[in-house]
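Quick review question:
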C-alpha cells in the first residue's frame, strides 16, 4: 500500500466532515438574511440560505467563509487523483460505465427523489398550506431545479468523461499530463507548482469575478445541471491538477510522504491563514462600503481568494502527509462511507435545522447538534444502503452461480442418468 494512501483516506474523511459542518452552521450565520425568502419568488435565495434561524454567532460566519473558499477545490483535486490509475486498471469503457452508475444514477435519484424531501421544510417555513400536495404543486411549478450539493456529482461525471475520452484517444496521454513541473519539481520544489496553480486559477477566475461577488456567485443552469459560474473553472483546474499528480503517481510526486510539501507543512499552514486575511480584509471593507476609497480593492480580494484556495489545498495535504499516516478509526469509517454521507447529509441538515427553529437555544449548541445529528444519520443511511445493495448483489450472484452450475451439470450429465 502506498504511504500516501492513508493520509489521503484520512483527508477525505475530514473533508466530508467539514462539508457537513459547513451546511450545518450556515443557518446560524450573522450574515444570513434577516428573514426567510419567499419560496415562489425569484431569485429563490432559499437555495443558498435554506433555513434562517434567529439565533446566530459570528464565529460560524468566519468558519463558513474559510471553508467556502477552498472545500470544493480540494474535493475536485482529491477526486482527480485516482482517475488515471482507474483508467489504466479498468480500461476506458469499463471505467466510464462504472462512473456513470456511481455518479450519474445517484445524481438523478438525488435530484428528483432526495432533494424534494430535503427542501420540504424550507417550504414549510413560509407556507400557508403545509401539506405535501401543496408543496409538490409549488415545487413542480418552480422555473429552477434545486439540486443542493448533489450538483457535484454531475459536474464530476462530466470531468470523468473528459478524462476517459482523453485516455481513449491516447492511453499514453498521462505523460503529457505530467510535465517537468510535476515530475521533477513537485516533490523537491512544490512552491513552483503552487505559483503555476495560482497563475492559471487567477487567469480563469479574475475576469469572470470582476462584476460578481465571490460569496454569492452567479449560478448557470440548464435544467438540473447547475454550477456556480465564477468558480467552475477553478474546479476544472483542480481536477486536472489531481489527474496529473495521480498520473505521475500520487505517492511519489507532490504528495510523497517524505517530500518537501510534507516537510515544510508549517510554512503552508501559515501561508494559508495569511492568504485568508488577504481575502477577508478587503472583502470586509467592500461590504462596509469602503471599497470606493481604495481603488483595486476588489482585485486584491479576488486574488486573495485564488491564493487562499491553492495554499489551503497544499497546506491540508502537507499536514495530513506529515501527521495522518496511520489509521484513525472514526475518520476511517467516515471516509469509507464518504460518498453516502455526502449524498444523504443535506436532508438531515435541513430537517434538523427546521426542527430546532422554535427552540430558544444559543446558536453554538444548535449548530453542533445539527452537525452531530446529520453526520450520524447520514452515516447510518450510507451503511444501510451499502448493506441493502450488497445483499442484492450477493443474491443476484448466488442465483446466477446456481443457475450456471445447474446448467453445466445438466449439460455434462443428461437427465436420463439420474433416476427419480
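Suggested answer, residue by residue:
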Amino acid at each position: 500500500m502506498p504511504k500516501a494512501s492513508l493520509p489521503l483516506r484520512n483527508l477525505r474523511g475530514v473533508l466530508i466532515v467539514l462539508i457537513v459542518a459547513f451546511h450545518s452552521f450556515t443557518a446560524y450565520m450573522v450574515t444570513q438574511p434577516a428573514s426567510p425568502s419567499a419560496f415562489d419568488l425569484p431569485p429563490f435565495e432559499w437555495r443558498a440560505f435554506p433555513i434562517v434561524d434567529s439565533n446566530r454567532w459570528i464565529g460560524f460566519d468566519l468558519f463558513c467563509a474559510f471553508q467556502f473558499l477552498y472545500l470544493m477545490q480540494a474535493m475536485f483535486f482529491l477526486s482527480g487523483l485516482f482517475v488515471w490509475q482507474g483508467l489504466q486498471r479498468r480500461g476506458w469503457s469499463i471505467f466510464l460505465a462504472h462512473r456513470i452508475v456511481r455518479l450519474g444514477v445517484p445524481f438523478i435519484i438525488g435530484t428528483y427523489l432526495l432533494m424534494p424531501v430535503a427542501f420540504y421544510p424550507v417550504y414549510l417555513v413560509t407556507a400557508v398550506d403545509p401539506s405535501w400536495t401543496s408543496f409538490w404543486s409549488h415545487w413542480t411549478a418552480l422555473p429552477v431545479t434545486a439540486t443542493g450539493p448533489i450538483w457535484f456529482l454531475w459536474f464530476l461525471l462530466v470531468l470523468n468523461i473528459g478524462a476517459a475520452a482523453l485516455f481513449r484517444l491516447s492511453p499514453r496521454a498521462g505523460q503529457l499530463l505530467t510535465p517537468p513541473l510535476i515530475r521533477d519539481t513537485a516533490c523537491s520544489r512544490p512552491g513552483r507548482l503552487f505559483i503555476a496553480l495560482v497563475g492559471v486559477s487567477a487567469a480563469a477566475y479574475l475576469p469572470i469575478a470582476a462584476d460578481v461577488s465571490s460569496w454569492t456567485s452567479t449560478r448557470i443552469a440548464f435544467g438540473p445541471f447547475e454550477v456556480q459560474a465564477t468558480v467552475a473553472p477553478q474546479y476544472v483546474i483542480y481536477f486536472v491538477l489531481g489527474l496529473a499528480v495521480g498520473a505521475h503517481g500520487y505517492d511519489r510526486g507532490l504528495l510523497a510522504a517524505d517530500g518537501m510539501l510534507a516537510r515544510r507543512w508549517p510554512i503552508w499552514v501559515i501561508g494559508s491563514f495569511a492568504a485568508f486575511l488577504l481575502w477577508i480584509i478587503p472583502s470586509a471593507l467592500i461590504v462596509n462600503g469602503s471599497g470606493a476609497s481604495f481603488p483595486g480593492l476588489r482585485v486584491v480580494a479576488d486574488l486573495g481568494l485564488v491564493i487562499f484556495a491553492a495554499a489551503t489545498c497544499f497546506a491540508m495535504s502537507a499536514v495530513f502527509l506529515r501527521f495522518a499516516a496511520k489509521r484513525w478509526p472514526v475518520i476511517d469509517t467516515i471516509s469509507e462511507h464518504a460518498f453516502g454521507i455526502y449524498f444523504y447529509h443535506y436532508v438531515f441538515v435541513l430537517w434538523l435545522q427546521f426542527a430546532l427553529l422554535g427552540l430558544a437555544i444559543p446558536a453554538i449548541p444548535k449548530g453542533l447538534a445539527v452537525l452531530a445529528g446529520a453526520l450520524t444519520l447520514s452515516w447510518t443511511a450510507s451503511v444501510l444502503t451499502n448493506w441493502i445493495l450488497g445483499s442484492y448483489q450477493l443474491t443476484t450472484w448466488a442465483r446466477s452461480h446456481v443457475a450456471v452450475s445447474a446448467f453445466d451439470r445438466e449439460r455434462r450429465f443428461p437427465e436420463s442418468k439420474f433416476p427419480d
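Why it works: Residues 5-417 form one domain. The chain has a mean pLDDT of 88.
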